[in-house]
Amino acid sequence: MQNKGAIRLLAIVFALVSLYQLTFTYVTKKVEKDARLYGAGDIKKEQTYLDSIRGEKVYSFLGIKGYTYKECKELEMNLGLDLKGGMNVTMEVSVVDIIKAMANNSKDETFVAAIEKAKQMQANSQDDFVTLFGRAFSEINPSAQLSSPDIFGTLELKDKIPFGAKNDEVLKVLKSETEAAIDNTFNILRSRIDRFGVAQPNIQKADVSGRIIIELPGIKDAARVRKLLQGTASLEFWETFTYSEVGGALNAVNTKLAEINAASEVIESKPEVKKEAKADEEVALLDKIEGESQDSLSNAKELAKKYPLFSVLNPNQGRSGSSLAVVGYSHIKDTARVNNIFAMPAVKSVLPRNLKFFWGVKSIDDAGNIFELYAIKVTSRDGKAPLDGDAVTSAREEIDQRSARAEVSMSMNGEGSKVWARLTKDNLQRAIAIVLDGYVYSAPTVQSEIKGGSSSISGNFTIAEAKDLANILKSGKLPAPAHIIADEVVGPSLGKESIQKGMWSFIIAFVLILFYMFFFYSKGAGLTANIALITNLFFIFGVLASLGAVLTLPGIAGIVLTIGMSVDANVLIFERIQEEMKAGKGLSLAISDGYKNAYSAIIDGNLTTLLTGIILYIFGEGPIKGFATTLVIGILSSLFAAIFITRLFFEGSLKRKRNITFTTKLTDNWLRNASIAFIQKRKVFYVISAIAIVISLGSLFTRGLNQGIDFTGGRTYVVAFDQPVVVGEIAKSLDAVYGHAPEVKTFGGDNQVKISTKYKIDEEGTEVDDEVEAKLYEGLKQYLPAGTSQESFLENNRKMSQKVGPTIADDIRQSAVWSILFALIVIFLYIMVRFSNWQYGLGAVAALAHDTIIVLGIFSATYSIMPFSLEIDQAFIAAILTVVGYSINDTVVVFDRIREYLGLHPKRDPEENINNALNSTLRRTFSTSLSTLVVLLAIFFFGGTSIQGFTFALIVGVVVGTYSSLFIATPIAYDTKLRIQKVISKKK
User: What span, in angstroms and rounded, lies between the C-alpha atoms of 947 and 939?
Assistant: First the structure.
């Protein structure tokens, strides 16, 4: 083996990096355990602990670098919502509404007709809406001009769309403006999400234009989230006070609070430690939070009583670099307390009526702990801002030619320019606050009166910060607020249950694989393979942590499946080594040649599965993307572990002159001398497969498939009760409130059901979502304990909810079809190129189509009789593509051996060569299939209800895929190529 030193070094470095990445997860779990101990069941105290320590260093890496809890939290392994609970939301910005708003809701007949036609075209096209709109506009009236004053030739757009501009030029502007609007919405949503206080939120733009995907772990109040995310952005410009103007009022507030007897209970700065059995332990934990002795803690409490406001709000007495409007600073954990203070009636009575406070949107320190408080001056009787975002017509980031610093230029409409001129004239050398959603994004100082509406905002901006501010200014009041088109809520108890079941399935599957390798390949080769598997597992988790990938329940299934499939590489190598040894070669040479001869099949087989995983990643969303991520990482890691790690161990054993065994007495001759006439009996297998396909197609055409809401649209709820319930009675009760009987199925135990309904799925808005949930509660109230409120029902009994709108359901369905077709095309091309014959590609794709039809047929025929859900959803598509990858892996190994036999024995009859090649792979084929089935059965029985249908598809697929790789793919390749060659050779 060449480059052993380099490979050993790479393995060590890889292991150390993986260990380093996983330590952050260990540290955060330890800190959170301390928080739970300190909180003693009090969630608020637990959160206070975490808020207080978020900026403290809790981990030192070898004394080289220290990490705060916040930094460790950002670097720990992310768990998906299905494992820890939370909310997944898909939002869509209506490009149609943006275009209409840009045209001032034009009534032009061609414009209106083009909008409607583009909507219809969008249902069957992957192009963006602006492109479709332009195409429809030209088809309806080829001579019409988009730059017409009746459409986009408006005063607001005159700088971007000049009179007489060509349609292509106008469409470019429309694309730019719609993309900017989507970016603005993305930034606004991201800012709102940052204020949820959610750990590890994730927000990303989807591939489909206008869609934004948001994951919020741990969220419980789904209704509040929906309202906050769908609210229209409100941009405002406010006059401000300076600290010198309001400092006296703040002192008065502090004095007033000190005079109130109950103030210490209301605004107590630090939680008091209870003197209980664990007092010493809790005091130690409190010391961790405060970082000070009990004496200093006592002093802090005395200070809080004397200065109840200033103990949580540090006054701004001339801090350099801050805005003139900043009056104080607070730690993030104290901001809510400051808000409560200013909301007290007694405090309001000593504050000027025209004074209000807004927080800065971003922290001013690197740790993300300290926030600025701005003093806002109210100048109108109705309490509204003197100028809002409607006045802004454009904003962009620029570089000042003189100072070379980033700045933001802004333009306003006519009415806004007049107000802006008055504001700037009245506030010379004072700050004007730019406020969005009640948070200050910037408060620049006015240097001079600004007439004409064109302004330049300068400061210590980076280019990125200037761009963000420009986007905020452009947002104004968005012409098209984002709507939720799909959401999923997973309760924390269901997430905890998923973790437990997922881990149990993982542990059981892993132990079974370790035992299987010992049993089949003895303690010599079996132990080496098991070490490689453990190393592989360690690498997979290390890579997931380092990439910031999200581990989901399907992701755990992907890892477990990877473990089962990674056995295949070891099996191929071990079987090859045994063949070399039986040919009379010594152990060292047999190992060397065994690896060499197995490389081709290993790389080809894993590469096809890798391609399938990549396709899944490209077309999938959410949990499916998580499954694909773990599958791809697992395949790459498995290749490294199987090819290099095991080889290093074998080389070490050979160097120490240790004997290595590759089989046991029980398994030595198993399928070793098989002699099945595959080619001669192929017509029998054709008939068997034809019958199975006809039955499958018959079921598909008559019964169809049980499509989940991913494909049909609708709402799904998983509800748990205290006692067993009858699904028929549940359906009847809900029929009375919804006006139709929803689909109700048992989900897991007999006290838990899954409810699917399409009630008002075509309508949007938080009011509709609230109504559907209210009716769900009303219909199920009689099955709940007396006195259960709707709030309690939604928090405790509703374990999961999911909503998929009709538009996204169409897209998911299209994506599923394209992903399967694309996978088949890619695999056909790969096989054709790799084996230099299209007939091999045809045989492989025919086998894959055979597998897919039969799996679909079994799902169609059995979905109403199985005790678990067999819905066709995104997870099922992932299963189908995984089956495709697994089946092609089997087929490629067989094709590789056929190619080898044909090369070694060119004069031998092709039928004999193929039969011998297939028989020689039987031992490997069944060993791999059996090990994979063992893993899948462990997932099926112990992995939980939510992935049983997914796993069932994989189990069926492995069985059918093994059959097709032996009895379908090769005979078809033979009939289309090798048989023709045989006829030609006989004629010669």
Answer: 8
Choose among 615, 634, 621: nearest CA to 80. 621
pLDDT at position 687: 94
CA dihedral 34, 38, 41, 43 (to 10 degrees): -90
Q: Could you count the other beta carbons within 10 Å of the beta carbon of residue 424?
A: 18
Residue count of the chain, please give it.
Answer: 988
DSSP assigned state of 943: S
Question: How large is the average pLDDT for residues 964-984?
Answer: 79
Residue 627 sits in the same domain as residue 556: yes
Place of tokens 């079809």: 817
The token pair at 571 is 């099996």
Q: Is 60 found in the same domain as 107?
A: no
**pLDDT of res. 290:** 40
CA atoms within 13 A on the CB side of 829: 7
CA distance 970 to 968: 6
State how far the alpha carbon of 777 is from the alpha carbons of 540, 734, 760, 782, 963, in Å: 43, 9, 16, 9, 49
Please enumerate in sequence order all residues whose Cβ is within 8 A of that of 67, keeping only pairs 6 or more positions apart, or say none.
Answer: 24, 27, 57, 58, 59, 60, 61, 75
Q: Which residue has the higher pLDDT, 696 or 102?
A: 696
Structure tokens of 115? 């909008």
Distance, CA of 649 to CA of 574 (rounded, Å): 14
Burial (Cβ within 10 Å: 0-12, 13-18, ≥19) of residue 527: middle
Question: Are residues 734 and 590 part of one domain?
Answer: no
Residues 277, 281, 286, 287, CA torsion sign: positive
- Where in the sequence is the domain holding 28, given as residue range(s)? 4-76
DSSP H/E element including 214? strand 211-217
Q: Is 471 helix (H, G, I), strand (E, B) or coil?
A: helix
E runs forming strands in 665-713: none
Give the three-class secondary structure for 859: helix
Residue 298 lies in a domain: no
- Write the DSSP symbol of residue 445: B
Together in a domain, 736 and 695? no
For Cα atoms 633, 566, 614, give the angle at the middle one, nearest 5 degrees. Answer: 35
Residue 487 and residue 407 in contact, taking contact as beta carbons nearer than 8 Å: no
Domain of 785, CATH number, reads: 3.30.70
How far is the C-alpha of 324 from the C-alpha of 244, rounded, in Å? 10
Pairing of strands 439-442, 355-360: parallel
d(CA 878, CA 803): 20
Condensed to tens digits (0 to 9), the pLDDT of residues 866-885 reads: 878 788 877 777 777 777 77
